């Protein structure tokens, strides 16, 4: 029998949600509003003098070719991370969904990398692919590949993408596995009885039923690539060589904290937030049309 929850005190519901609202306002909306306001100011590095300059920080920023280079790098970086991490996670989830001996241990091991901190993940990949110390790098040199992410910008980007995608695969794997296990076995059995092979069953039955999960993970992975890869880039390349791995979020850090240009850094953060909001809206507007609920 279904029973409705009745609050006997009219203020009790508001008191229950008040702690969460305070946290959201204090740590999300207030800093965002502060960044918007600071983007209209010209401030010295020590915060001793402040001048209201309106949209001057935005105009000056949009005149810089380096900024548009960072925009292009960020979009390419995000596409590579989302595509590679989602593809490998889906492959691993399909394999882990099979009734194999010791499958629980395999699933646990595949989830563990998500607990690794971004900076630690970056250091692990540096140890493997460092041009002089890494075992994988030495193996590449033995094959005639002159691997050197310290000097080659393309190699540095590949290295950062590998580390960032590896860090996110476990998260995607968890959701894909849950999505696969929620698909009714009777549907797959009916397709098998109709003569559909494993690949045909996957693309005509399993994949369409996974589209809600895929859509959710695309949004999450794009946000992850735009914001949460800062620690990996900082630990591995510091945005180099020659700004080859300097994404938008890392440029905000370089110009604001290290460069002392707080107004430009705030303007960059506002534009970055707007880009992510627009990208998310586009995904909900067009990509969601192909989702099968």
From TrEMBL:
InterPro entries: MetI-like, MetI-like_sf, UgpAE/MalFG_permease
GO cellular component: plasma membrane
Transmembrane segments: 12-32, 75-96, 108-128, 156-180, 201-227, 266-287
Keyword Cell inner membrane: yes
Subcellular localization(s) per the UniProt record: Cell inner membrane; Cell membrane
Keywords, ordered alphabetically: Cell inner membrane, Cell membrane, Membrane, Transmembrane, Transmembrane helix, Transport
Membrane topology: Multi-pass membrane protein
Zinc-finger is among the record's keywords: no
Domain of life: Bacteria
Pfam family of the protein (one): BPD_transp_1
GO biological process: transmembrane transport
Domain ABC transmembrane type-1 stretches: 71-283
Family: Belongs to the binding-protein-dependent transport system permease family.
UniProt subunit comment: The complex is composed of two ATP-binding proteins (UgpC), two transmembrane proteins (UgpA and UgpE) and a solute-binding protein (UgpB).
Record function comment: Part of the ABC transporter complex UgpBAEC involved in sn-glycerol-3-phosphate (G3P) import. Probably responsible for the translocation of the substrate across the membrane.
Protein name as it appears in the record: sn-glycerol-3-phosphate transport system permease protein UgpA
Organism: Rhodopseudomonas faecalis
Upper classification of the organism: Bacteria, Pseudomonadati, Pseudomonadota, Alphaproteobacteria, Hyphomicrobiales
């Amino acid at each position: 029998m279904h029973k409705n929850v009745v609050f006997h005190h009219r203020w009790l519901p508001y008191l229950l949600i008040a702690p969460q609202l305070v946290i959201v306002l204090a740590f999300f909306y207030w800093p965002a509003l502060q960044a918007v306001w600071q983007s209209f100011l010209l401030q010295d590095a020590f915060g001793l003098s402040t001048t209201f300059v309106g949209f001057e920080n935005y105009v000056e920023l949009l005149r810089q070719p380096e900024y548009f280079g960072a925009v292009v790098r960020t979009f390419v970086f995000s596409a590579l991370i989302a595509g590679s991490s989602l593809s490998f996670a889906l492959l691993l989830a399909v394999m882990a969904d099979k009734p194999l001996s010791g499958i629980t241990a395999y699933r646990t091991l595949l989830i563990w990398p998500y607990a690794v901190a971004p900076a630690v993940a970056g250091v692990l990949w540096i140890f493997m692919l460092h041009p002089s110390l890494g075992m994988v790098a030495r193996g590449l040199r033995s094959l005639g590949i002159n691997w050197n992410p310290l000097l080659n910008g393309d190699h540095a980007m590949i290295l950062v993408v590998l580390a960032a995608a590896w860090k996110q695969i476990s998260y995607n794997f968890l959701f894909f596995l849950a999505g696969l296990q929620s698909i009714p076995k009777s549907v797959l059995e009916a397709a098998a009885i109709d003569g559909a092979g494993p690949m045909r069953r996957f693309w005509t039955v399993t994949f369409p039923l996974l589209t809600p999960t895929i859509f959710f993970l695309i949004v999450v992975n794009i946000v992850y690539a735009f914001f949460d890869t800062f620690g990996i880039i900082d630990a591995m390349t510091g945005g180099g060589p020659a700004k080859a791995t300097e994404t938008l979020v890392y440029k905000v850090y370089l110009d604001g904290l290290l460069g002392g240009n707080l107004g430009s850094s705030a303007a960059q953060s506002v534009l970055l937030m707007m880009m992510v909001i627009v990208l998310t809206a586009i995904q909900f507007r067009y990509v969601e049309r192909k989702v099968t609920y």
